[in-house]
Amino acid sequence: MGTQKWKFRLMASDFEFRHRFWIIAAFFWVAFSLYAIDHKNSGHILAQSLAHLRGATSSALDHRLVFAAAALIAVLASTIRTWGTAYLRPEVMVSMRLQTSRLVADGPYRFVRNPLYLGNIMISIAMGLMASRLGFLVLVIGNTVFVYRLILREEAGLEATRGNSYRAYCAAVPRLLPALSPRVSAAGSVPDFWAGLLGELFFWTFTASLLVFAVTLNQRLYYWVLGCAFIVYALSLFAINRRGKRTGMAA
Question: Smallest Cα–Cα separation from 102: which of 182, 155, 164, 158?
Fold first, then answer.
Protein backbone atom coordinates (compact mmCIF):
# COMPACT_ATOMS: atom_id res chain seq x y z
CA MET A 1 0.00 0.00 0.00
CA GLY A 2 2.84 2.38 0.87
CA THR A 3 4.53 1.73 -2.50
CA GLN A 4 1.29 2.45 -4.38
CA LYS A 5 0.79 5.70 -2.48
CA TRP A 6 4.36 6.76 -3.27
CA LYS A 7 3.86 6.01 -6.98
CA PHE A 8 0.60 7.95 -7.03
CA ARG A 9 2.27 11.02 -5.54
CA LEU A 10 5.21 10.83 -7.93
CA MET A 11 3.33 10.22 -11.18
CA ALA A 12 2.69 13.12 -13.57
CA SER A 13 -0.61 14.98 -13.48
CA ASP A 14 -3.11 15.16 -16.35
CA PHE A 15 -1.87 18.68 -17.12
CA GLU A 16 1.74 17.51 -17.27
CA PHE A 17 0.86 14.61 -19.55
CA ARG A 18 -1.15 16.79 -21.95
CA HIS A 19 1.63 19.37 -22.17
CA ARG A 20 4.61 17.01 -21.91
CA PHE A 21 6.19 18.25 -25.15
CA TRP A 22 6.33 21.86 -23.97
CA ILE A 23 7.46 20.94 -20.46
CA ILE A 24 10.37 18.95 -21.90
CA ALA A 25 11.08 21.85 -24.29
CA ALA A 26 11.16 24.14 -21.24
CA PHE A 27 13.90 21.98 -19.69
CA PHE A 28 15.98 22.57 -22.82
CA TRP A 29 15.30 26.31 -22.73
CA VAL A 30 16.26 26.59 -19.05
CA ALA A 31 19.36 24.44 -19.56
CA PHE A 32 20.72 26.60 -22.38
CA SER A 33 19.73 29.80 -20.56
CA LEU A 34 22.08 28.80 -17.74
CA TYR A 35 25.00 29.96 -19.88
CA ALA A 36 24.23 33.30 -18.20
CA ILE A 37 25.50 31.77 -14.93
CA ASP A 38 27.97 29.13 -16.10
CA HIS A 39 29.79 30.25 -19.26
CA LYS A 40 31.71 27.03 -19.94
CA ASN A 41 30.39 24.51 -22.45
CA SER A 42 30.20 20.99 -20.99
CA GLY A 43 31.36 19.32 -24.22
CA HIS A 44 34.43 21.54 -24.50
CA ILE A 45 35.25 20.89 -20.83
CA LEU A 46 34.99 17.15 -21.48
CA ALA A 47 37.31 17.42 -24.52
CA GLN A 48 39.85 19.37 -22.47
CA SER A 49 39.65 16.86 -19.61
CA LEU A 50 40.21 13.89 -21.93
CA ALA A 51 43.19 15.63 -23.51
CA HIS A 52 44.58 16.43 -20.06
CA LEU A 53 44.37 12.75 -19.08
CA ARG A 54 46.76 11.86 -21.88
CA GLY A 55 49.02 14.80 -21.08
CA ALA A 56 48.14 16.91 -24.11
CA THR A 57 46.42 20.16 -24.98
CA SER A 58 42.96 19.76 -26.47
CA SER A 59 42.69 20.32 -30.20
CA ALA A 60 39.85 20.83 -32.67
CA LEU A 61 39.97 17.07 -33.30
CA ASP A 62 39.35 16.35 -29.60
CA HIS A 63 36.31 18.62 -29.64
CA ARG A 64 35.01 17.10 -32.86
CA LEU A 65 35.33 13.60 -31.39
CA VAL A 66 33.36 14.56 -28.27
CA PHE A 67 30.56 16.14 -30.29
CA ALA A 68 30.65 13.26 -32.79
CA ALA A 69 30.01 10.95 -29.81
CA ALA A 70 27.11 13.20 -28.81
CA ALA A 71 25.75 13.01 -32.35
CA LEU A 72 26.07 9.20 -32.30
CA ILE A 73 24.04 9.05 -29.08
CA ALA A 74 21.43 11.27 -30.75
CA VAL A 75 21.35 9.01 -33.82
CA LEU A 76 20.77 5.97 -31.59
CA ALA A 77 18.07 7.82 -29.64
CA SER A 78 16.27 8.91 -32.80
CA THR A 79 16.54 5.42 -34.29
CA ILE A 80 15.07 3.81 -31.17
CA ARG A 81 12.23 6.34 -31.09
CA THR A 82 11.50 5.91 -34.81
CA TRP A 83 11.44 2.13 -34.40
CA GLY A 84 9.07 2.45 -31.46
CA THR A 85 6.76 4.99 -33.14
CA ALA A 86 6.56 2.75 -36.22
CA TYR A 87 4.72 0.25 -34.01
CA LEU A 88 2.95 2.66 -31.65
CA ARG A 89 1.74 5.06 -34.42
CA PRO A 90 2.60 8.77 -34.46
CA GLU A 91 -1.00 9.72 -33.57
CA VAL A 92 -0.61 7.94 -30.24
CA MET A 93 2.85 9.40 -29.70
CA VAL A 94 1.59 13.03 -29.93
CA SER A 95 -1.83 12.46 -28.37
CA MET A 96 -2.80 14.68 -25.44
CA ARG A 97 -4.90 11.82 -24.05
CA LEU A 98 -3.49 8.75 -22.36
CA GLN A 99 -3.91 5.85 -24.80
CA THR A 100 -4.58 2.51 -23.10
CA SER A 101 -6.81 0.75 -25.64
CA ARG A 102 -4.04 -1.59 -26.80
CA LEU A 103 -0.75 -2.97 -25.54
CA VAL A 104 2.15 -2.78 -27.98
CA ALA A 105 4.62 -5.63 -27.42
CA ASP A 106 6.48 -5.79 -30.74
CA GLY A 107 9.68 -4.27 -32.10
CA PRO A 108 11.65 -2.42 -29.40
CA TYR A 109 8.83 -3.05 -26.93
CA ARG A 110 10.05 -6.64 -26.71
CA PHE A 111 13.31 -5.35 -25.19
CA VAL A 112 12.19 -2.34 -23.13
CA ARG A 113 8.79 -1.09 -22.04
CA ASN A 114 9.43 2.58 -22.77
CA PRO A 115 11.69 2.97 -25.85
CA LEU A 116 10.39 6.48 -26.61
CA TYR A 117 11.20 7.75 -23.14
CA LEU A 118 14.57 5.99 -23.26
CA GLY A 119 15.21 7.99 -26.44
CA ASN A 120 14.24 11.19 -24.59
CA ILE A 121 16.83 10.57 -21.90
CA MET A 122 19.51 9.71 -24.45
CA ILE A 123 18.84 12.86 -26.49
CA SER A 124 19.03 14.98 -23.33
CA ILE A 125 22.51 13.56 -22.66
CA ALA A 126 23.60 14.24 -26.23
CA MET A 127 22.16 17.77 -26.34
CA GLY A 128 23.41 18.43 -22.82
CA LEU A 129 26.97 18.43 -24.17
CA MET A 130 26.02 21.61 -26.06
CA ALA A 131 24.89 23.29 -22.82
CA SER A 132 26.98 24.60 -19.95
CA ARG A 133 28.06 22.30 -17.14
CA LEU A 134 25.14 23.45 -15.00
CA GLY A 135 22.83 23.27 -17.99
CA PHE A 136 23.89 19.66 -18.64
CA LEU A 137 22.91 18.66 -15.10
CA VAL A 138 19.57 20.47 -15.25
CA LEU A 139 18.72 19.01 -18.65
CA VAL A 140 19.64 15.40 -17.91
CA ILE A 141 18.36 15.21 -14.33
CA GLY A 142 15.23 17.28 -14.97
CA ASN A 143 14.33 15.36 -18.13
CA THR A 144 14.97 11.97 -16.50
CA VAL A 145 12.83 12.74 -13.44
CA PHE A 146 9.99 14.12 -15.55
CA VAL A 147 10.11 11.16 -17.95
CA TYR A 148 9.98 8.76 -15.01
CA ARG A 149 6.88 10.54 -13.69
CA LEU A 150 5.24 10.24 -17.13
CA ILE A 151 6.08 6.53 -17.21
CA LEU A 152 4.43 5.96 -13.84
CA ARG A 153 1.26 7.66 -15.08
CA GLU A 154 1.13 5.62 -18.28
CA GLU A 155 1.85 2.38 -16.46
CA ALA A 156 -0.95 3.06 -13.95
CA GLY A 157 -3.39 3.66 -16.80
CA LEU A 158 -2.33 0.52 -18.68
CA GLU A 159 -2.49 -1.63 -15.57
CA ALA A 160 -5.99 -0.34 -14.81
CA THR A 161 -7.29 -1.19 -18.31
CA ARG A 162 -5.15 -4.17 -19.38
CA GLY A 163 -4.91 -5.88 -15.99
CA ASN A 164 -3.03 -9.16 -15.74
CA SER A 165 -1.76 -9.08 -19.33
CA TYR A 166 0.06 -5.81 -18.64
CA ARG A 167 1.35 -6.99 -15.27
CA ALA A 168 2.79 -10.09 -16.97
CA TYR A 169 4.39 -7.87 -19.62
CA CYS A 170 5.94 -5.66 -16.91
CA ALA A 171 7.31 -8.71 -15.12
CA ALA A 172 9.05 -9.85 -18.32
CA VAL A 173 10.26 -6.60 -19.93
CA PRO A 174 12.43 -3.99 -18.15
CA ARG A 175 11.13 -0.44 -17.77
CA LEU A 176 14.04 1.65 -19.11
CA LEU A 177 17.26 -0.40 -19.29
CA PRO A 178 16.89 -2.54 -22.44
CA ALA A 179 17.35 -6.29 -22.30
CA LEU A 180 19.97 -7.80 -24.61
CA SER A 181 17.44 -10.23 -26.08
CA PRO A 182 13.66 -10.14 -26.60
CA ARG A 183 11.75 -10.84 -23.38
CA VAL A 184 8.37 -11.60 -24.99
CA SER A 185 7.31 -13.33 -28.18
CA ALA A 186 6.50 -11.23 -31.25
CA ALA A 187 2.80 -10.39 -31.48
CA GLY A 188 2.83 -10.05 -35.26
CA SER A 189 2.25 -6.30 -35.56
CA VAL A 190 3.47 -4.74 -38.81
CA PRO A 191 5.54 -1.55 -38.38
CA ASP A 192 4.99 1.54 -40.51
CA PHE A 193 8.48 3.05 -40.67
CA TRP A 194 7.39 6.02 -42.81
CA ALA A 195 4.86 6.91 -40.13
CA GLY A 196 7.54 6.36 -37.49
CA LEU A 197 9.88 8.74 -39.30
CA LEU A 198 7.11 11.32 -39.62
CA GLY A 199 6.52 11.17 -35.88
CA GLU A 200 10.21 11.58 -35.07
CA LEU A 201 11.33 14.28 -37.53
CA PHE A 202 11.71 16.67 -34.60
CA PHE A 203 14.26 14.38 -32.96
CA TRP A 204 16.05 13.80 -36.24
CA THR A 205 16.43 17.58 -36.69
CA PHE A 206 17.96 17.77 -33.21
CA THR A 207 20.32 15.02 -34.31
CA ALA A 208 21.17 16.92 -37.50
CA SER A 209 22.12 19.98 -35.44
CA LEU A 210 24.65 17.91 -33.48
CA LEU A 211 26.06 16.34 -36.64
CA VAL A 212 26.49 19.80 -38.18
CA PHE A 213 28.29 21.07 -35.09
CA ALA A 214 30.54 18.00 -34.86
CA VAL A 215 31.72 18.66 -38.41
CA THR A 216 31.94 22.46 -38.38
CA LEU A 217 32.25 23.48 -34.69
CA ASN A 218 30.15 26.45 -35.82
CA GLN A 219 27.81 27.37 -32.97
CA ARG A 220 25.72 29.78 -35.05
CA LEU A 221 25.02 27.08 -37.63
CA TYR A 222 24.14 24.66 -34.84
CA TYR A 223 21.53 27.04 -33.40
CA TRP A 224 20.12 27.72 -36.87
CA VAL A 225 19.51 23.99 -37.47
CA LEU A 226 18.21 23.57 -33.92
CA GLY A 227 15.71 26.39 -34.45
CA CYS A 228 14.43 24.64 -37.57
CA ALA A 229 13.43 21.69 -35.37
CA PHE A 230 10.39 23.59 -34.08
CA ILE A 231 9.28 24.43 -37.62
CA VAL A 232 9.69 20.75 -38.48
CA TYR A 233 7.66 19.83 -35.40
CA ALA A 234 4.78 22.10 -36.40
CA LEU A 235 4.73 20.71 -39.95
CA SER A 236 4.96 17.08 -38.85
CA LEU A 237 2.23 17.60 -36.23
CA PHE A 238 -0.03 19.02 -38.95
CA ALA A 239 0.71 15.99 -41.17
CA ILE A 240 0.11 13.56 -38.28
CA ASN A 241 -3.25 15.14 -37.49
CA ARG A 242 -4.31 14.94 -41.16
CA ARG A 243 -3.17 11.32 -41.29
CA GLY A 244 -5.14 10.57 -38.13
CA LYS A 245 -8.32 12.03 -39.59
CA ARG A 246 -7.93 9.92 -42.73
CA THR A 247 -7.39 6.71 -40.81
CA GLY A 248 -9.85 7.45 -38.01
CA MET A 249 -7.05 7.67 -35.43
CA ALA A 250 -7.02 11.41 -34.68
CA ALA A 251 -4.43 12.43 -32.10
Answer: 158
The amino acid occupying position 96 is M
Percentage helix, strand, coil for the chain under 3-state DSSP, each rounded to 5: 75, 0, 25
Angle (CA) 207-211-213 rounded to 5° is: 115
**β-bridge partners, 132:** 41
**CA distances (Å), 138 to each of 17, 90, 142, in order?**
20, 28, 5
| 203 CB-side CA count, 13 A | 31
Please measure the distance between the N-terminal and C-terminal CA atoms of the chain and give it in whole angstroms: 35
Residue type present at position 183: R
pTM listed for this prediction: 0.91
Q: State the Cα–Cα distance between residues 216 and 72, nearest whole angstrom.
A: 16
Query: Do 119 and 154 meet the contact criterion of CB atoms below 8 Å apart?
Result: no
pLDDT digits (tens, 9 = 90+) for 35-91: 999 999 999 999 999 888 888 888 888 889 999 999 999 999 999 999 999 999 988
Task: Give me the phi and psi of 191, to 5 degrees please.
Answer: -75, 150
- Cα gap 119→76, rounded to integer Å: 8
